[in-house]
Design brief:
The chain is of the alpha/beta class and about 400 residues long. The protein is built from 9 helices and 20 strands. The chain has one domain: TIM Barrel (Alpha-Beta Barrel), CATH 3.20.20. The strands form 5 sheets. Strands 1, 2, 3, 4, 5, 6, 7, 12, 13, 14 and 15 form an 11-stranded mixed sheet that branches. The longest helix is centred in the first third of the chain and has 15 residues. The two termini are about 40 Å apart.
């Protein structure tokens, strides 16, 4: 079940032609997630600064959508105006939230302003009030509350994100089973493998040649050696676990690393189901046609759809896509399938930066989550290094010292 890049479509994105613009509107948050990479230093950005960043992303990223992040973006007092300004600039506003500040009233206002969908981060390492000690399966009751609330708005997509640690790794198949059971209201899952900068073990860090005293208070993603087992989980590990339980799952596209030829930083797939039964996946040919066709027609690549369900129209792709052909055969094998909706859930796997033994850092090639800092595009996952030290940290090995 080894991943093979030759069998996947490599997303054609680049720094200046990328479907995603990452917009951080605040570093204020109402939760304390393990390994959070954003510390509270500045509070809410003012609306004019946010508008400038939106214009910058539109000009220099050629975005199809803007991912509104933080901190917790729903806490920003101008969040409705922010969503409206993104829509006015003909991009899709997509809210990344932990859900705690959401309500039907706020969602109603956000939808009126043009919100396309939400990606809700819910996992068992957030110290979420009232849900302490709950595992990922137990948290599905909370996820269902959020999904039902979003679905009641009509027209908004709803997906979920979790950070993967060794403690919750084996519950990933249970989450996909739950998503298939709730495919009417749940658009998908993204599994983000935990990454961090390891303290100790003879490693030092420098910024522009200057040594930095790094500890867990300096960066949220700095950890001691004893906790380093979490960062050994890779995209391939998550993929193999999913494939073992859902052989119908086949990813269609990927992004590699900036340093390692064999790393998978982003893996994207779309698993279809008839009822709750998985019957196949979107293939690379369909993804390639969708990306190239969208860019040809609209001048931009895309990631999030306006409507959360593709439906039976995807079966037309069986003419060119062998994976969709398998779906068609399985779908028609049961006459009752004709009377059931064909739904799908997106399954994404993300592996953030890795510090390599030689001191280099393997970033996401053509990073989709670049944001604006000090008038330039930077990697959002490492922006606190710019905010606190002025530039990126570089690990130094024992031999180099």
């Amino acid at each position: 079940m080894e991943l093979n890049k030759s069998q996947l479509y490599r997303f054609p994105w680049s720094m200046n032609d990328n479907p995603i613009g990452w917009l951080e509107v605040t570093d204020v948050c109402n939760l304390g997630c393990k390994g959070c990479y954003r510390q509270k230093l500045e509070g809410h950005k003012n609306l004019e600064q946010i508008k400038d960043e939106i214009r910058f992303l539109k000009k220099w990223r050629n975005c199809d959508n803007i991912s509104i992040a933080g901190g917790e973006p729903a806490l920003h007092p101008d969040i409705v105006s922010i969503v409206n300004f993104i829509r006015e600039n003909r991009m899709k506003p997509f809210l990344l939230s932990n859900g705690m500040a959401l309500s039907k009233n706020l969602l109603t206002e956000l939808k009126k302003a043009g919100l396309t969908g939400l990606g809700l981060h819910v996992d068992s390492f957030q110290n979420r009030p009232g849900w302490e000690g709950k595992n990922e399966v137990e948290l599905c009751s909370l996820r269902k509350q959020y999904a039902d609330m979003v679905h009641s708005m009509g027209g908004l997509s709803c997906s979920f994100n979790i950070t993967v640690y060794r403690e919750n790794f084996n519950q990933i198949p249970d989450l996909i089973t739950w998503a298939l059971q709730n495919a009417k209201t749940v658009n998908g899952f993204t599994f983000i493998t935990y990454r961090a900068a390891i303290l100790g073990q003879g490693r030092e860090y420098v910024v522009n040649g200057r040594k930095v005293n790094l500890d867990e208070r300096a960066l949220g993603y700095a950890i001691d050696k004893e906790r380093s087992d979490d960062i050994r989980i890779k995209t391939g590990d998550v993929y193999n676990l999913i494939k073992k339980h859902f052989p119908e799952y086949t990813p269609s596209a990927y992004l590699g690393g900036s340093k390692q030829h064999d790393s998978f930083k982003w893996l994207a797939g779309y698993l279809f189901c008839s009822g709750e039964r998985p019957i196949g996946s979107l293939g690379r040919k369909s993804m390639e046609l969708a990306q190239a066709g969208h860019h040809l027609l609209f001048g931009r690549y895309f990631l999030y759809l306006k409507n959360k369900s593709i439906g039976k129209s995807i079966l037309a792709m069986s003419l060119i896509d062998p994976e969709v052909r398998k779906i068609l055969v399985r779908f028609l094998a049961s006459p009752l399938s004709l009377f059931k909706p064909l739904r799908g859930i997106g399954i994404g796997i993300v592996q953030a930066p890795d510090a390599l033994p030689n001191g280099e850092v393997d970033m996401c090639d053509s990073c989709p989550d670049m944001t604006v800092y000090d008038g330039k595009l930077v990697h959002s996952c490492r922006m606190d290094e710019y905010r606190k030290f002025g530039a990126l940290l570089t690990p130094v090995t024992e031999e180099e010292r």
